[in-house]
Amino acid sequence: MYEEALDELEKSRFEDLEPTSGYESTVRNCQLMAEANAIKAYCLEKVGRSWRATKNLSEAERKEEIIQKYLRAADLAVTYFQGQEKLSLSSQSATIVTGIFVRKYILLYIMN
Fold it and tell me: How far, in Å, CA of 69 to CA of 75, rounded?
């Protein structure tokens, strides 16, 4: 099961992906990349040295790769949450600006 997940992750070539244009898609990519790195690290932990890509690695090198995957996942998760916060704040400010505009418009209409 873990080997299959690793094979699918390898086929997806998620590690080669670059953020696409557009802020929202970049935030979404951060989430996907964080999840993929965490899943890969977890699977590498579970399979040990039996998976073909880790057969030639020493135990220390394998553990280092797992740690690097978890750290990458954590960095991407932080970036994702920061992006979500920025998107949330920008949509809130747009709502506030729209609300102010509507109130001013209504007041101007009533005054005329």
Answer: 10
